[in-house]
Each structure stands twice: as C-alpha cells, then as structure tokens.
Amino acid sequence: MIFTTLMRTALVLLATLVAGIPCHAEQTIAIEFTQKDCHYCEVLDRTLNPLIAEGFAVRKIDVNAAAGEIKGTAKSGLQLAATYGVTQTPALVVQTYGDDGKPKLNSVRRIDHENVVGLRERLLAAGVHYLPPAPQTKP
Fold it and tell me: Do residues 33 and 81 lie in contact, with contact meaning Cβ atoms separated by under 8 Å?
C-alpha cells in the first residue's frame, strides 16, 4: 500500500518534470531561469543538481530557447522569463499550482540563490514539492 502510493507519487512527479507541466494536485515547484555560457548559472546548477536528484521539483528554463522548444508551452524562454519578472540569469522563482493544474494567482516568489549555502532549507521553507527517493533495499 505505502509502496504503491510512493510509486504513484514518483510517477506523477516524473511526468511533471519530464513534460514540464504541473501535475493535478496542488504543488509548488522551483523554476530556474538559466542560459548557456553563464558562469553564475553553472555555479547555481552545481548546487541545484544534487537537490533535484534528492527529490526537489525544479524546472530549468533556458532563456534563449525559441518558441516551441520548451515542453508544455509555446512561449520562448524570454517570454516565460518576462512572465515571471525575470530580467537576469540565473534566477530562481517558486510557483504554486492549484488542483486544476493552473498557476495560482500571486503565488510567484523569488528565492535568494546568490548565497548557495542553505539553498536546500530555503526551498523547503518556500514549500517546494519534495519527494525523497525511496530507500535502497538489498536483494
């Protein structure tokens, strides 16, 4: 029973991250706006990638992506950045989605990413969806 629930949650989260769209249960995700050849973006990635592997729901968006290149939207990376008020990279914002899968009004918040120390705790405090990996069992 618990394993089935965990697997269902993991599959929903995986589908959410792969498809780039929110799942149909209220959840909060972090969105990283980044671009290639950006030193500070790479520094933030070195901190975020282990957190993503740990189970945090983080969506990465390249601001230089053309319209139609980003899964789940027809907007370009710059259009999405403008939607969230992002004017420089890297930027890390948090968005809450309702049960209907649509963004909730006034739910966008910026996360301080300049000091990467304590980023995990700031993501947790912001309510970013976190699904820890299942413990490994020995066969």
Answer: yes
More confidently predicted of 126 and 5:
126
- Residue-wise DSSP of 80-129: HHHHTT--SSSEEEEEEE-TTSSBPTT--EE---SS-TTHHHHHHHTT--
On whether the CB atoms of residues 76 and 65 are closer than 8 A, the answer is: yes
pLDDT at 58 over 70: yes
pLDDT of 4 reads 41
Mean pLDDT for all residues in the chain: 77
Q: Encoding tokens for residue 94?
A: 């948090």
* Residue reference for tokens 């918040």: 109
- Please state the length of the chain: 139
Model's pTM, two decimal places? Answer: 0.69
Nearest-5° Cα angle at 125, 135 to 114: 100
Residues 61, 38: Cα–Cα separation, whole Å: 13
